[in-house]
Amino acid sequence: MKKMDAHFGLPPRAILISIVVIVLVFSSGCSDILFGSHKVDFESSPVTTTQTPLRACWTQPKVIVGSTGAQLPEAKKILHLLYDDETEMSGDVIVWTDTRNFDDTLEDIYMYNIAMKQETPLIVVKNRQKRPAISGNLIAYSNWTDDKKIHVYDLNTGKDTAIPTDHRAETVDIDGKRVVYDDFNKDSTMMYDLSTGVETFIMVNGEWPRISGDYVIYRKSVNGRDDIFLYNIPDKKETCISCGLTEEPTADYRIDGNYVVFDMSTAGEPLRLYNIGTTTTSEIVPCPGKCEYQTGGMCGAWYDISGDKVVYASGVDCTDCDIDEGVFIYDISAGTTKALHLHSSHDSDVDGGLDCRNGGYPRISGNNVIFWQGFEDIYLIKL
Fold first, then answer.
1. CA dihedral in degrees (154, 157, 162, 168; nearest 10)?
2. Strand, coil or helix: 348
3. CB-based contacts of 3, cutoff 8 Å, min separation 6
4. For each of the chain's 383 residues, which pLDDT tens digit applies?
């Protein structure tokens, strides 16, 4: 990628004047950002950027851009998958439900090691294996071959083990040695500790549970309204974190450490960020200029969180900028947002664009960010 000359051949006095103008423009919340259009080079795989000015007015407190525009990181294609779903990532390992052998009964679990650049089939048996979740070297999933029992696969040993429980799970999640799941027969959220072999009842009527450390989040219906609840494992305390909001949340929430990020069922609503320590909820408003974002309420799990970083993907109906679709990252500690991958409104159909499935489902773990583009391709960005 050719580096732009920051001085543009201007004399020192002109450069100083330009800096002053840029400062004034940024203080107004708007700037000409050199994001550009993208094209995939299928021989070398990375996404290249042709820098052209795009008008963007950001609603975030701060936007990280340089005086000559933002330099987007390289997004490199690492996987081409025809039939897949439910992609998750931990460290350098990506897992997903794969239907390349699909015949109305088969769904397998595959993995890809980013560091080794290697794809491996893990669970390939008759019937369906659903909802893989990964934490370190352990992958938990619902084994429909085994009457929806919860299984855990150890990447280090290659051993696949069924959790000794009479519960049957539609969805599962894992963090460390703890596995959470919803029992579709008894409408309850359960937890199993692999280190102690103890199964614990969490809450009745909970669904779609996720776990991080000592906290479990799940959605349940109370008085005809669906809300997200947080459960403190040591204190055995349940707290509703979305009950005070006008809209109902979707089931696409994510949790990591001290934060929960979730979206609302109403399209165009900003993401919500819940701080467990302070019990406060704030908004992540990913919209540049006067535009309406198509958030997870329409297209599924369009966001993820790792530490104090939130990634999200969205299509935009923008009235005063040329940004049509993009993948963004929000730094919670710094309160800043920056773009990772963008399409302008002039080339949204390039490589399938980022509309819904075509660029949704971003995942982040440490310095790795992955996202979909063009229906069948997974791209990697190293932060």
1. 10
2. coil
3. none
4. 333 333 334 444 444 444 433 433 333 333 333 333 222 333 334 443 333 333 333 333 333 333 234 578 888 999 987 666 678 999 999 999 887 776 656 788 899 999 999 999 988 876 677 789 999 999 999 887 666 789 999 999 999 999 988 888 878 999 999 999 988 777 789 999 999 999 999 998 888 999 999 999 999 999 889 999 999 999 999 999 999 898 899 888 999 999 999 988 876 677 899 999 999 999 886 554 444 444 433 344 579 999 999 998 776 554 445 555 678 889 999 988 787 887 655 444 444 444 444 456 899 999 999 988 766 789 999 99
Residues 6+ apart with CB under 8 A from 45: 76, 77, 78
Indicate the pTM of the whole model: 0.78
The alpha carbon of 208 is separated from its chain's Cα centroid by a whole number of angstroms, namely 16
Cα gap 170→179, rounded to integer Å = 13
Distance CA(187)–CA(203), nearest Å, equals: 9
Beta bridge partners of residue 96, listed in sequence order: 110
